[in-house]
Specification:
Order of helices and strands: HEHEEHEHEHHHEH
CATH architecture: 3-Layer(aba) Sandwich
Helix content: 25-40%
Structural class: alpha/beta
Strand content: 5-15%
CATH topology: Rossmann fold
Largest sheet: 6 strands, mixed
Length: about 270
């Protein structure tokens, strides 16, 4: 396996950032590429949004609120869209939707049915997820006529590289969501987070990610469980304990983001109003 498969090199940071800063959707009818993040509780969905924002703002930020104390319950409760601000009052043409985490068992965490509605653009901003019942068609937060910009253009699963074996009920929910996205033709990728905590080699130096047998096995196991190809599983370390930007952290974030945006843009290019 080539080293650049997972660590393209920090010298490419400026090139990737330049590409993303100049990015415009191919489809003129699409205002922004919508990225929906999902996964179990505490895997780093909100932290990934913050990490992306850090890179673009060139400083530490906390755009999406996170918690280090919610081990088994989701900190995120509402459907919220996060934009990335560029110079002036304009935002970059890609947005992220953070959702309630998937929890083990029935009646806990975000419901797969709500995620399926979100994929089609039927969930309005501010909807509070209810683990007991799904969003109904007569609810004020149900969008009956979603635009192509309301729809999700790329689905990204985030999973903790340091987590133990995934609970069967959580895995089943993830498979349901993947199947719904596949029926809609929505491209899917995965982010393997917390890679520094899962492996001593990457804890010492993030550039060792391509040489870590432990991480590559973890990615292979995850690929087999969920069916996401290995080249669509992206190892990332989110900003968590740092107080300053780190070039190696940025490298993995930018590499993942560029692929996510390109996949979403190719899908959005085929959509018609």
């Amino acid at each position: 396996m080539k080293a650049e498969a997972y660590y393209p090199g920090s010298k490419n940071n400026s090139q990737a950032l330049h590409y993303l800063k100049r990015f415009q959707p191919q489809n003129d009818e699409v205002k922004h590429i919508r990225v929906l993040l999902y996964g179990p509780v505490g895997v780093g969905k909100s932290s990934f949004i913050n990490s992306v924002n850090n890179v673009f703002q060139e400083r530490m930020t906390q755009k999406a609120l996170t918690s280090s104390t919610t081990a088994d319950k989701s900190f995120t409760k509402k459907y919220k869209t996060y934009t990335i601000k560029r110079e002036g009052s304009v935002n970059y043409p890609f947005v992220f939707n953070d959702i309630m985490g998937l929890e083990d068992g029935d009646g806990r965490g975000v419901r797969a049915d709500d995620l399926k509605l979100a994929l089609m653009g039927h969930v309005k901003e501010g909807y509070t997820f209810n683990p007991i019942s799904s969003l109904s068609h007569d609810d004020l937060y149900y969008n009956s006529s979603p635009s192509i910009s309301d729809r999700v253009h790329v689905l990204v699963c985030i999973y903790d590289a340091n987590a133990s074996q995934m609970k069967s009920s959580v895995l089943q929910k993830m498979k349901e969501i993947r199947e719904a996205a596949s029926e809609l033709g929505i491209p899917q990728l995965a982010i393997l987070s917390h890679i520094d905590e899962a492996c001593g080699e990457t804890e010492k130096n993030l550039r060792n990610v391509c040489n870590s047998k432990h991480l590559i096995k973890k990615m292979g196991d995850f690929s087999s469980s969920l069916g996401i190809p290995m080249n669509c599983i992206l190892p990332v370390k989110n900003y968590s304990e740092e107080i300053q930007l780190n070039q190696d952290v940025d490298t993995l974030i930018l590499s993942a983001l560029r692929l996510i945006i390109d996949f979403g843009d190719d899908y959005a290019a085929k959509l018609k109003p």
